[in-house]
Amino acid sequence: MSELAELERRIADALDRIGAGIEKIDTSAPEPVVDEAQVAELTEALEAERTANVQLEERLKTLRRQSEARIKELEDEAGDLKAAAAETAEQLRQARHELQAARQAAANGPDIDALEAELNGLRKVRDADRAELDDILASLKPLMEDRTNA
């Protein structure tokens, strides 16, 4: 933004010089007195400002394209995270269901198969929780890298 302020200042200075040049022109004289060197200087300054303005507009377009692309990337990442979270939640629901079934079977008596099923169910719940944590950490890692690079 400091570049924009600098360009605005330069344009204002050029306009002030143009205004000062116009005031120096004697309107009551039959032929106006024009300092060709000053006109050339002002024309050159005006062209320089126009060039700077075009460059600034191009840079602004580039920055907009880059930010739009980054927004699209983040939206895609968010969609991927939502899908992964939904999958993990489904795995967790399934594991909890299996665990509940194993607990009910175990309530009927000490059954080795039921205990193994409950243990497997607990492992699935743990694995689903771990997968969810890994997904969250994987999604946070690029954001933290972006933050440290900014």
Written overview of the protein:
The structure is a single chain. By secondary structure, this protein is mostly helical. The chain has one domain. The chain has helices spanning 2-24, 36-107, 112-149. Helix 1 packs antiparallel against helix 2 and helix 2 runs antiparallel to helix 3 (112-149). It is rod-shaped and about 115 Å long.
| Helicity range | over 70%
Strand content: under 5%
Q: Terminal Cα separation, in Å?
A: 17 Å
Low-confidence stretches: none
The biggest sheet amounts to:
none
**Rg from C-alpha positions?**
35 Å
Return the structural class: mainly alpha
Give the rounded overall mean pLDDT. 82
Shape: rod-shaped
Indicate how many domains the architecture comprises. Answer: 1
Count of strand segments: 0
By DSSP (H or I, 4+ residues per run), the number of helices equals 3
SSE order: HHH
